[in-house]
Every structure is written in C-alpha cells, then in structure tokens.
Amino acid sequence: MAHPSAPSTPLITVHYRRRLLVWVVAVCWPLALAMCTLGTYVLTVLDIESQLLFFVMYFPPMWCAMMGTLYLAQTNCLTYDVHRRRVWSGTGHVQRTMGRWKDGDRLNYSIYLGRLERIRPSGKRRAIVRNAYVVDQSSWTAFVDVFLTHQNETRRGEDADAADQGLPTAVEVGIRWRFFTCVLLVGLALGAWGFWLVPTVDGPLPVVSAAYFLFGAVPLVLRPVLRYEDGLVSVKTVGRVREFPSRGYERLEYSVYWGCLFEVRADGKRRRVARGWARDQDSWKVFVDRFMEDRSSE
C-alpha cells in the first residue's frame, strides 16, 4: 500500500492546490470589492435599507478571498518525517496542536473520517488535518499510504484481536442525530437572540440562524439510514429507498483518503454516496470494516 517513492524520501510534504487558490484569490478579492461598492450604491443611492441584502452580496466573495489568502500564506498543509514517524511542521493549526503534545499522546489516521488526529490516553480525539478540496491529492495520497503502513505495523496484534471478534453480515448506519440536534438548537437560539435584539428580518443574523437550522433540520427530518447486506448498499429516507450503485454507475468504492463511500462510473468519475463525519460513528466503523473486508475477498 506504500507509495512507490515514499521509502527513498525522508520527508513527505502535503501541499495545497496553489494554482486553484491563486485563481480563487485573483477572482474573489476584486469581486468582493465590486459587491461592496454595489451594495453601498444600493443602500445609499437607491435608498434600500437592507443589511441582509448587503450581507448576501458581500460576504460570500469576501469569505472565499480571505480563506484563499489564508491557505496561500501557509507554506504547506503538513510535513511527515518518514524516519522519525512524526508530523513536525505544517499549518498554524497543526503546529498549535502538536505544540500541546503530552506524554501518552499518539497520532492516528482515521480511515473512517479521512483525517489525521491526535488521541489522548483518555481516548479523546482532536483533528489535526483532514482531506479537503484545496489539498493536493497526490501528496495527500502519498502521505496517507505511508502513514497507514507505519500505523498498521504497530497495531498488527490489535487488528488480529478485532478480526477474531467477527463482523455482522448486515449493517445499518444512521446519522449523528445528537450532533444535528445541537446544530438545529443553535440555529433556533441565534434566531431567538436576533429577534430579541432587532425584531425585524434584517441583517446577517437571520441568514446565519436559518443556515444552522436547515443544516440540522434536514437530516433529522429525512432520517437517511444506510443499509449494507450481501454486498448491496441502500439508503432509506422518509418514503424513499435508493439502491447503489445507481443507474449509470458500475461499482461502489470506499476511499480511505476521504472517509467517504463513492459510486464509480466506467470512466472513473465518482459521486459521493455517504460521508463518514455525518454518520453514527460506531455503526459507520462496522460498515467500513465489513465493506472493505468483502471487497478485499473478491
């Protein structure tokens, strides 16, 4: 599973997609300035008093421009020392997390969530870095392959014990309902707070509260349950059952680099079926282990 060039390379550096980020910054900063000017014109010249309209026009390009600039200011996403088996540099977040390292802590790559994390002796996990669209996929793949090889070497005995326990043939995976309930409640709290401060539908707070509310409410209402049995995957929502791979796709594939289940076309194009972070973690882990075991035996 190790990357071909990894053994001869003492350091593996995971980069950002700088060309993409340059394009984002080059487009979004002028666009943010233009939207700010247009919003000011709408508010003053046309005498339309709506902070909500100004926020909707101005915030999206400004946020993209700021995030793109922040990523470009980082030298890299992370650097992994192959010989010492340590992450020793990267973004400010990586450096801060590694700077709080304590005795008994260990690094772990979660194939279920597609992220590198720090685990305390108590079992508490803290994400260090996860795969994202702005991360260069070739260097991320090289890092994950080598890190998993090292990780599996140290856990060979644990994996054998887990294998002896066996896995169920049928698995059902729900959503993280506690997480989505908390998000929904935050949206309601923000909406109530905003109405108490300014009892009018104006300003950015209603948009933020509505976004939180919908993000939490939609999964709770639809209640998507993923079921895996006899090599077949289906997702049941309220009044609907979908089977995968769907029409036009020929197979299913689980990516340890993303922590997601994909359906794949004949030309290699993929579409996400389920994301690990949104699913109940205990049953998701059982599903991933069962799915990968079945695929490895084919």
UniProtKB/TrEMBL annotation:
<feature type="transmembrane region" description="Helical">
    <location>
        <begin position="179"/>
        <end position="198"/>
    </location>
</feature>
<feature type="transmembrane region" description="Helical">
    <location>
        <begin position="20"/>
        <end position="46"/>
    </location>
</feature>
<feature type="transmembrane region" description="Helical">
    <location>
        <begin position="52"/>
        <end position="73"/>
    </location>
</feature>
<keyword id="KW-0472">Membrane</keyword>
<protein>
    <submittedName>
        <fullName>Uncharacterized protein</fullName>
    </submittedName>
</protein>
<keyword id="KW-0812">Transmembrane</keyword>
<feature type="transmembrane region" description="Helical">
    <location>
        <begin position="204"/>
        <end position="222"/>
    </location>
</feature>
<keyword id="KW-1133">Transmembrane helix</keyword>
